[in-house]
Design brief:
Elements: H1 21-52, H2 59-95, H3 110-115, H4 123-138
Helix pairs in contact: 1-2
Length: about 140
């Protein structure tokens, strides 16, 4: 095999044992990269919020600044919650429960985990959960 041949990046496959070491490492790296990206964005948001902390003499400018500040704070709160979910997923990788539905115990599915690596429910269990939630909301 020639050294110049490019290797394709690893993608988990249904053809290999579910949640083998390579798959766990793939999802660990994906989660850590996602967490790093969120932390970078959070730092940028914090800098922006500090820069916006200017007292605007014009009432309209002040109101606009306050709306932007509120959006920034809500974004930071969502990021904080997402980091918590990422940390929980990393913990599940460590304890061996990652990739298995917390309702059924069945594998969640590689495509779903690739799209949403913090998923704790299989597609079917998630749909059941959402249907129950909708019924309770309507009552």
């Amino acid at each position: 095999m020639a050294v110049t041949e490019k290797q394709k990046p690893y993608r988990p496959s249904e053809k290999e044992p579910f949640m083998n070491e390579r798959q766990r490492e793939y999802f660990r790296a994906k989660l850590l990269a996602w967490k790093e990206e969120i932390l970078r964005e959070a730092k940028a948001t914090l800098v922006q919020l500090q820069d916006e902390n200017v007292n605007h003499p014009d009432l309209a400018d002040r109101a606009s600044s306050e709306r932007a500040r509120g959006r920034g704070l809500r974004a930071r709160d969502r990021q904080r919650k997402l980091i918590s979910k990422i940390d929980a997923a990393l913990g599940r990788i460590e304890d061996g429960s990652y990739g298995y539905c917390e309702d059924t115990g069945e594998p969640i599915g590689l495509k779903r985990l690739d799209a949403r690596p913090i998923a704790t429910l299989s597609v079917e269990a998630q749909e059941r959960h959402e249907r129950r939630e909708r019924v309770y909301r309507e009552e």
